[in-house]
Each structure stands twice: as structure tokens, then as C-alpha cells.
Fold each of these.
Amino acid sequence: MPSFSTGDDPGSSFPELLRRVGLGPVPIAGLSTDVMRELSVPHATTCVALTYDDGVVMAGDRRATSGNLISHRTMEKVVEADRHSGVAIAGAAGAAMEMIRLFQLQLEHYEKVEGTSLSLEGKANQLSMMVRGNLQQAMMGMVVVPIFGGYDLRRGCGRLWDYDATGGHYEERDYVATGSGSLHAGTVIKVGFRPGMSRDEAVNLAARSLWEAADADSATGGPDSLRGIYPVVATIDADGWNRLDDDDLATRYEAIVAEVRSR
Amino acid sequence: MSMPFYVAPEQMMKDRADFARKGIARGRALAAVRYSDGIVIVAENASETLRKVSEIYDRIAFAGVGRYNEFDQLRVAGVRAADLKGFQYSRDDVDARSLANSYAQMLGTIFTHEMKPMEVEILVAEVGLASSGDQMFHVLYDGTVMDERDYAAIGGDAEAINTRLAESWSEGLDRAAAISVGRVALGGPDREIPIEDLEVADLARTNGRRCFHRLDRADLGF
């Protein structure tokens, strides 16, 4: 059982605890960008998030690619960070998934040790430190670029943050898009966005943005009705994280298909 | 230079045990009661913020009596041990038995090696996937571990509370009944614990991944 003397205590930080017991991240050093490219690690692609009346919607496609190949069809890059926040990640899949796992653990660890949750801004700052910790790997091509969103219980509204590879984080008022298809997905949301949308409208806009991204970007996966694979779409409001089920998404995508066909 | 007096080891251990027991007996007790969906832990605690019962991991809860700063230190150590194990292996590999053993080691070492033993008693409870997997471990100030199945009482007057629990507990209680069994056993025959002095937490299979849930006054519904 880990025990520390007073004044030498890692407090409520889980990454710091990991370092102290010797389980901290092992830096990957001495690999060039070329070697990394040859390893062709899977990359996760497009994610979007936007605010609506009662909270935020987060959505991401399910595809991971290694170079020109599809390496996974059912990846989940939009995940619940804790009850009132979610994180969506684009970039090198291995590093991204590990970062999500550590982030989730950190939020839960803090909550248990302190007896209360971190504030939403505190969570955004934590994630920023983790992205910055990945900087060395980012410079070798293993870039991880998350979006963080959640419901701020103190202010009573949904909030969004955008990150860059160096850990810089910027709060966005309306919407964020990240990953290879972010240009297309972001444009769809930009055009369709209205302040104070309902949950239903916001979900439809997010679904539509991923459809257009998949249409124009080969690394973004569209809805796959053949295999029953749909993007991950979730909303976070005062009641917490709520992921839409596949049947609901299937109906929404059928409507989009019908609309596209009728043009 | 003066020579220290010789103290027989038996006497020294007895003194320490008496010291710890006295410290623990000063505080209020708590009881854990198994029911159909899990385990409820009922504590007599006048404070709304300094908790005696808390979450350790998905299916594990911790309860402590005695000196607050000492059992809180144990609680944090438990959260760290559990989170580290879950990170290193998997969430399924974190269990109450190994955690209770770690606590026993720590308390045993402190009891024999440190200036002062810890004046605490703790309870580590775990809910299984089915009711047959529910278990509780009661760890004493000197590192003695006891496993309990249906109910447990720790703290001052624990023996009398245990007797009352034995009389009123039965298999297949629902949550409200289990809380009431715990509350009555803690209060004794001539005292009813006021609802604002109760701290109740529920460790239920039906709560999803994180089984631990604090019950506020509205949830108690007395």
C-alpha cells in the first residue's frame, strides 16, 4: 500500500502518484519521424462538438486508419470522461486512448480522494497538462488533439475547449471540430449553427457534419448500415452524459439519406 | 545518564491495545448491513462534511471509526492502492480481500513499530456480481482481520450492536429495511438516532459501474 510522509505527498493527482511509484509514462526517445511513419500506427480521425440550449453535443466517427488502410471500424473516440464531461480525441490512436484512460482515472481519483469533483475548468486544465506531456511524441508524429466538453454545474451551461498539440487550450463558445475531416465537418456546423438550438437540432447538425466529412475525407467513416456501425453521438446536460443509441442514429441518418436523394 | 525502565513485551502490547481501544470507544459506532441488492453502511455522524463512509473503487466501500485524521489517511491510501492496481492490471482485479490484507499489514506494522498505535477500526465492504459475492472485512487497530458476511459493527459498543443486529437481521431485506435495522441497532433500546445525525451510504449492484452511492435525507425517506 503506497504511503508518503507529510509534505511529500502526491495529493489528489493520479499521474503524479504513478510517477512516484515508478509506473509513469516511459518516454519514447530516439525515434525519428520517418521511423514513426513506417510503423504506420493507427490514427483516429474526425470529432466535433457544439453547444446547444441545455448543454453540449459531442460526436465522432468510428474509423481509424493506418496510412491508406482502414485499421478499425468500431473505434470509440468520443467517451465519457466523468458524469458531466466528455472527451473526443483525434490523432495517434494508441497515445490518444491511453490519454483518455489516464484522464478518466485522474478525474475519478481526484473525486474519491477529495470527496468532490473537479470544476469543469479544472478538468480542462488537467487535460491540457496531459497533452503537453505528450509533446515529445507529438514531435515524432504521434500528435494527439482532443476536444473537451461538459456541463458546468456552477455556471449552469455547456462549455467547450479546443486543444493544440502543445497543450494550449482555448475555450470556444459555439462549436469545435478536430481531426482529418474537421474542415468539412466544421464548415457544416458553422453554416448550420444557431444560438440556443434544441438538443434534437444540435444532434442532427452533428450527425450531418460527420456525414459531409465522411463524404469528402477518406479517413472519416460514414454511417455503416450494412454492419450496423454508427458514429458515437452523445449529449451532456445537467443530468449528465447521455449517448444516443444506434437505432436513434439509424433513423436520423435515414432522414439525411432521403434528403440527399431528393435533391 | 538514566537507564530506561524495563517493560515486559506483554505489558507493552497490552498498554498499546488499551490505549487504542480507549480512543476508539470514545467515538460513535457504525454498522454495515447486507440486503438483497448489496450492502448499506449506516453511521452515527453529526458532521455533514467529515465523512466516515466513502468510496474506494467500483464495488468497494470504506468505513472507519476512531480518530478522523488517521482513518482518513488509511482511506486515501486505499483509494491509491485500488486505483494503481486497476491501472496496472484491470478493474476486475481490484478486490476487497487483498485491500483488507494490505490494511492489516499497515496497521500491524504501525501497532508494533511506531510510538503510538492508530486509534481506528475500519471496515472494507465489497458487493459481488451476485449476492453470494458480497463480503465485508473488519480490520482492527493491531492488524487483526475478521471477515463478516451478513452484518458488521465497528467502534465503541460494537459487541452490543452486533448482538442487536443478529436479532433483527434476516435474509432478503430491502434497502429501507436494512437501513432501519442498522439505525435501530446503533441507537439501542432507549435511544433513537435523529435523522440529521445519520450518515448512510449504499453499495448496490444496481448502481452501474460505480456501485457506491451516498444517501441524503430525501433518499432515506423516514
Amino acid sequence: MPLSLDSYLGSLPQALQLRAKRTELLASNLANVDTPNFKARDIDFRAAMDKAHHNQLQLKATQSGHIQDPAASTGGVPVQFRVPNQPALDGNTVNAETEKSQFSENAVQYQATLHFLSSKFSSLKATLKGE
Amino acid sequence: MSLFKVFDIASSSMSAQSIRLNTTASNLANAESVSGSPETAYRAKQPVFAAMLKGLYPSDNASVGVQVTNIVESQEPLPMRYSPEHPLANEEGYIYMPNVNPVDEMVNMISASRSYQNSVEVVNTSKQMLMATLRMGQ
């Protein structure tokens, strides 16, 4: 039975990429915590993972003039604005505490995904060695 | 690799917050600089923050840094003080004080330093994540 590395790893690589993308979004939110009129943004991780599982067709851009899928970098789901529970008078909707806790949570989930991915490789190595 | 962009975003935030700290330091240092006319008097300076919507990565609108677009001077009226013996006093005997509010400036200072610390934290966490990624499979 030929082993396909893609199917062996499952959806872990997509999950890792999404986590990295989400890190970037949350870092943007934290950077703009004092910017007037900035709206905090995030992605729906569950919807993005669903999309990755079902492997939907995506727009392919082979030339610079082609229309780019705006949601291509976030696994096919659009970046959404966070619903503010207490927007500031200057129009900023970043809540530093929420963003910080989400950032920490995302970092831990990233490390967890990485750990799973790492153990996949370790077990593959162990199988190949046959010890 | 989007984790590298986090470094750019966090460093844009750190430089903007350090400009804010600089203006705060300047305002506090000049809180007692008196002047003989409203034109030459020191006015409190404040940086204007704006999201870098087209700055860091034009192709990617998800990574937004922050930049200081302008530094504005406060237009609040300057407090006048009657002290005819002061060498800088005008003909009516008034001197002009800067319109710096030390309480505002202290609040700005704490807010800027907290935001700066947040960015440092973001950089440290992202660095740990990247280093862990480099060690994957070992």
C-alpha cells in the first residue's frame, strides 16, 4: 500500500497554517490597540477547518492580472470583524484583554498542533527503522 | 510564512509607541517652560496613530501594522499668569504657561508603556512558536 504523506498528516498542516495566520491577525489587533477607528478582526477557526476538511475548489491565479481570492490566505473563510462589547469613543473596537487571551490561546493551540505533527513524524521514523 | 510578518507588525507598534513615549517625555519636560507671547509658548504635542492599510504587505490586507502619520499640537488655550517681575513678562505683566496637562501625560505614558510591553510579549511568543516549528520532527 503506497503511503501518501498528505493523507497521513491529515488536516494538521492546514491547521498549523491557519493558526499562524490567526497569530498575525491577533498581532495586528494588538498593534492597533490605540489607533482611532481601527476595528478588531479575527477568523472563524471552526469554519476554516470545516472548509479544509471538505477540500472545496479554490480560485487559482496563474498570472498577475487574475482575480485573487481574498480569503485564500485564511483557508477560504473571510476575515471578519469582531463584535465589540464596549467600543471606545474614538471608534476603536480592540479590547486588549480579549486579544491578549486569544493570542495566548492561539499560541498554545499552535504548539499543540505542532506537537501532534511532530509525533506523526516520530512514529513514521519509528516504523521505518523497525526497531 | 505569516509568522515572520508578526515581527514586522509588532515592531511597527513598538516604534509608534516609542514615538508616543517621546512626545510624552517632551511634554512633561516642557511643562514649566514659560514664554512671553502665545506664539512662542510650548504647546502639548500628541502623535496621531493610523493603521498601515497599504504599508506592510500590499497583497495581504490581514496584516495591518500601525504608523504615526502626524504629530499635532494641542489647541487648548494657554494658561496666562500675572507676574510683572518675570523677565519674560509682556507689557501687561503676563507670562504664558504651556498647555500641558501632567495628568494626561502620565496616563499617556502608562498606556504607551503597556502597549509596548504587549508588543514585546507578542514578539517573544512568536519567536518561541517559530523555534518550535524549526525543531519539528526531531
Amino acid sequence: MNAVERLARLFDNPLIVKDGVSRMRSWRAPVILTVYLALLGAFGYTVFVLAAISSPSQRTGSAMIGATVFEALALMQVSLVALFAPALTAGAISGERERQTFDVLLVSRMTAVEIVWGKLVASVAFMLLLILAALPLFAAVFLFGGIDFEQFVITQLLTVTTAVSIGAVSLFLSAAFRRTLASTVVGYGVAFAGMVGTLVAGALFTLALVVHSSTDLAISTSDVHPLLFANPFYSMFVALNDPNGAAMHLGRLVQLLFFVSSPRNDLGPGLEPWQATVLVQLVLVALSVFGAVQLVQNRRAPMPLRAPEPLEVAGVPVETGGGGL
Amino acid sequence: MIEVEALHKRFGGQVALDEVHFSVPRGEIFGFVGPNGAGKTTTIRILATLTAPDAGTATIGGVPVADDPYGVRELIGYMPDFFGVYDRLTALEYLEFYAACHAVPHRRRRSVALELLELVDLGERINDQVDTLSRGMKQRLCLARALVHDPLVLLLDEPASGLDPRARIEMRELIRELRRMGKTILVSSHILPELEELCTWVGFIDRGRMVAAGPMSDVRNRVLAGRRLRVELVDADDVKLYAARDQVADRAGVIEAELVEGCLEIAVEDDFADQDLLLDLVQAGVAVRSFAPVTGDLAEAFMRLTAPAPEEKAEEAGE
């Protein structure tokens, strides 16, 4: 089996087709797509007008306008993706339970991994469609200049990994909670914590580091709290504004995560914020998928790991006729 | 084909199954009878690999349910007592989806789905969205779904619940047809007359315990002496009824004759010649309006088997 066949087999999952068909036939799909593009377009146009008005000259202004609009669009896009992701994913498995179709799925030959994988891909595919549909907007802004191709790729990569990671966490919550409402609410809580919580907390901790840097020589002014490194907004902002000057060593990041400032640990590779964010998000995806698979697996009759305890009825042990399972 | 031995299951402090055991030979329709909460669904879920028993063994086609659930899933078609359908999928797409879930090869999925839709009489509705089908049609579609991988055994949990009489009859005929196709079928229900007409084997479960299981006639005979015949007379009054009863009471093969709701009910041995009795009555000048076997033996057997013991009755009365 060659690589193409393997890849095709990976995506030959009935849940991907079924959920995709079912989602695209609903009125919600075009509405979400339209609202998403309308919001993004309107926001981009507003920023463009404001930037054009405040531009000093037409020549240098073109690149500045391009960079400003691109940055605003990229940050807006990742915000919208974070807003849509829990709603699109948090009902993936709990919805099957509510629809009373989950047991039948479990009795089929699909493994727990296939079920979770199918659900994840089906949910994330729609978010990728949103991101893909917005590409012409970015391409138009790209023509103004001010943004190089690498920055463009990094912003799109961060948007995709943010969508996939929030989707994966919401999928795990969907497997953990019986009700879609509960998984959606908690999913939004987690997304908010990841997008805003890490930004605020990271900024405050970084401020504290700056304050301490005057007394603690081990702390440099370039030290940033790792929570900021895990934040897509910060990473995107740095990638677009300070592409070469914000890398920190992995050892230092781990050290600062536990509020240890000295002696400096500069072990491990130097990571730029976007690399750290992508890394953290991939770890989150792996943990969430693993957790969701375990939850789905346990929903089936689990393999007993030990002999059952003797059954007692009214305090009297009952002899079982058959062998224990 | 299905072997269940000493199954135990507790939910919290509640004993759901207590030493449940029965077997179903290949090609039989096994009626799993019991009131709500008796343990039918728990047993079926264990057989469907969805619930692990606390103790005991269950095998399907010789494959242990607990040790090889994937093997068992290839052998069984499961239809739960509740059923869900996906929105915005046609009946054909719905079956193709489940065919894919059961790893039916790509090239065969369409033909399998079409054949099954014909089998369950939904051939005209292949392009209808499943959420627009009637309840009876959805039930039949769910039965078709349980058949997509051509399983040897069908586990049907209350397949006729909530259906109107016509849909129930259609479902019954469908199950008979599946038996003719060689399937072994376990069907649970608390609608006894239906099971009586449909099933060849029967098992009674009450409060988590099997009270009887085996071939239908064996179970019935174990509990009820002989068959019952009902004779209705023209212009029946007590005099005519008592006279008719006296006419048949001492006849060989008659176990018991009694008056029930203005009719004469006669319990006879299994090999009794009904037509001779009718001939005797007519020749004796008894004006017979109808002469028919009494259905509902299964219900009677079930009531007797699950009746509270005298001491339990006394306890209840004491409370």
C-alpha cells in the first residue's frame, strides 16, 4: 500500500462522509459561511478605510495599509474560528447519544479510534472550509505588500491549528458529557481560557517578570511568560510584527512556567512564539483525541481486567454457574 | 446459536439480572418476555456487547461476547428498543452509511441497501429523507439497518413498540420472512399475543430472573395443562351451558370444562381430536355458534409463572 492509498484509507471513514453530507444539506452551513465571510469582509474593509485615511503617503502607505489590514484580518479570523469551533464540534458525540444513534454505531465494526477520528475530521473539515473560503480576502490584502509569504503561511497555520485544537478539546468534551448543551458551554469556557485567559494571565505574569528584572539579574527584559507563548493572538502578533526577535529556549520556558527565574536554563531548542503555540496545540489535540477514544471505548462493554467480585444478594454470596468473565 | 449462562448484572445496589440462563437454537425465533424493568434490555445489551456482565457467560455462534466483542458484532444485527435516525439523509444513504460502518465493500453497498429497502417494503421511498418517514417505516428501516452485514443472529428489542396494528402485522411478517432466510432471532416484547403467533421458543424473565425458557409448546405445557377450546352457543343460558358442559366433561381427553363469560371453555390434551368433540356436541343437539381454540395461552402461562408466591402476597397484604 503506497502513501496515497494510506492517506485515502485514512479519510475513507463513513462518519466523515455522513456528517459532511448531513451538515452541508442543512441551512446552517451556508448561513455560517455567509456570516463568517460577511463579518470578516466588513471588518477588513473598515480597517482598510481607517488605515487609508491615516496613511501618510500613497507610496509608503500601500505596504502599511496592507500590513495593518492583514494583521487585523488574521486576528479577527482566529477569533471567529475560536468562536465557531466549539459550536461545530461539541455536539459531535453527545449529539449521537441524544439522537439515540450512538449504541448502533458502537455495535458496528468501527473502532473507537475510527469513530473519534471520523468525528474530528468531519467537524474540522467545515472549519477548514471557512478558512479556505476566506483566503481570497487575504490574497487581496496580500497584493498591497507589507507582508511576506512566510508570515502569511504562519498566520494561516496558526488559524488552522487553533481550529483543530479547540475542535479536538470540544470533541473530548462531547464524549465526556451526555448533553450537547453542557459540552458546548464547557467548550466555550475552555476556548475562552485558551484564547483570552492565557493572554491576560500571560501578560500579567510577564509584567511581573519585567518588574522583577530590576532586582533579579537572571531575568532579562526579553523574557516572556510561557502562557503568552501558548496564546495564538500573541504568537500571531509577534509573527507579523517581530518575526526574528522573540525566540526563547524551551528550558527557559519550562523554568518560567513554574516561576523559577534563576539560574537561567537555556537548554533545548529556541522556539519562536508561533512554534510554541503550534506545539502546545498539537499536544492538546493528541491528549483530547486519546481521552475521547478512551471514553468511547469505555462506552462499549469494557474488557474485564480482573475476575468479578462474588455477587451478593441480601448479604448472601451467590454461586455463579458459569465462569466469571 | 445463543447461549446464556448464569448472567449477573447489578446497577448500583439494584440487581438487574440474577442467574439468567437460556439458549436459542439456530433458526428459531426466541420470544423474550417480561414486564418493563424485568431485565430484557440489559440481557440484550450484554449480548450486543454494549454492557459487561458482572458474572456469567454469553456466547453467540460459539463466540464469547466478553472475550471477542468484534467477532460477535459480525454475527449480530442489533435493533434497540429506541431508535434514532439521522436528519438530512435519504433512506438509501442511511443504509449505505451503516453498510460502510460494517465494512461492507464499496462496490456492494448500493446493491445491499437497495435489496434491503425492497425487503422491508421501502423500495418506493429510497430517496425520501429518513426523518420524514412514518414511525412504522422508520422501524422497518432500522430493521433493514440491522441486516446490512447479513448477520446470522438478530437481537430485536421491542421491535413493535409504538406501532399501529397494521405496522405491527407488517413487522411480524417481516420477522417471519427473516426466519425463512435462516436467521436466528431473539425478539423481546411485552405484547404476548403477538409473540405467541410469532415465536417458536420463549423465555420468561421477571425481576431479573428467568422463570422459564424453552420451546413454546414445552413452556406452555409445563405451566398449563393441555390446550383450551372455547365453545359459544346460540342463545346461551345457564341451562344450555351446563348441559353442554355435562356432555363433554367426562369425555376421554378432556381435562377440564368450565363456564367462562357465557361460553364453555374446555381444557383438552394436546393430541385430542377437536373435530370429534364438535361432532358429538352437534349430534347431541347443542346449538354451537362458534368453536375455536383459545389464544392467549402464553399470557396465562406468563401470569402463572410470575405470580407472587403466597408468602409474598401475605407480606404485601401485611404492608
